[in-house]
Amino acid sequence: MTEKIHAPVIAWFDIHARDLPWRRPEAGAWGVMVSEFMLQQTPVNRVLPVYEQWLARWPRPADLAKEAPGEAVRAWGRLGYPRRALRLHGAAVAITERHGGDVPTEHAQLLALPGIGEYTAAAVASFAYGQRHPVLDTNVRRVLARAVTGVQYPPNATTAAERRLARELLPEDEGTAARWAAASMELGALVCTAKNEGCGRCPIAARCAWRQAGKPEHQGPPRRGQTYAGTDRQVRGKLLAVLREAHTPVPQARLDRVWHEPVQRARALDGLVTDGLVEPLPGGLYRLPLA
Length: 291
What we know:
Elements: H1 2-16, H2 28-39, H3 44-57, H4 61-65, H5 69-76, H6 83-99, H7 107-111, H8 118-129, H9 138-149, H10 160-169, H11 174-190, H12 209-212, H13 232-245, E1 250-251, H14 252-256, H15 262-274, E2 279-281, E3 285-287
Antiparallel strand pairs: 1-3, 2-3
Helix pairs in contact: 1-11, 2-3, 2-8, 5-6, 9-11, 13-15
């Protein structure tokens, strides 16, 4: 099965891969790392303009490390999940201090950086350095669930069985393994999508276990939706928007105007402070963090 799906998926990728800036040679390992932080739970079309601005301003980790963490939060804009900006800033500081400003090549060194988990370490090692690692994002997990396991959707959280399957499916050759990682991810993003799978365009449709089984409906736990309106996430976003646009500390009264419900607003602001995204100052003032 493994050899039968590698070649057609990679051949499809050679023709249909999107021309994305982090896939170009000039992006380097830092560009790949920035893209991986930004693309978590965020679509490509929203990431592209922020990514371009980020790399123009901070072309190397050391350039970002010199800045206050609040500047990373400011530049993150409306990408959402802004703790990623703080984590990326922390990683840049560590790269500068521990590795002379160059993104490390070893998987273990990547994993030791603050804010870097198993997925991001594997993705950077694979996409930036062409190494052989299983790269399991949502798109890849969905492709493997359908093509190999024969179910419509993977579990809500990555399982040991999925990791084992991904390792077993890795081509032995490093370069081929890295290409497979990128190709299977692109297949899930463009063809084997969550809602409208394009089996007529899929290079492995004839070998897909889920399709051969008649596309049985999902039998697992309900899939998590991503609601936003009225949530604490929305309130946090509104509070951060005010602070991003201000270059001097903001009084509490100005923040109070962004959301009508005081208890939820206070909870959201407290959460931002706890997460290190907002710094409280004497006199009821707030700003993005300086350290």
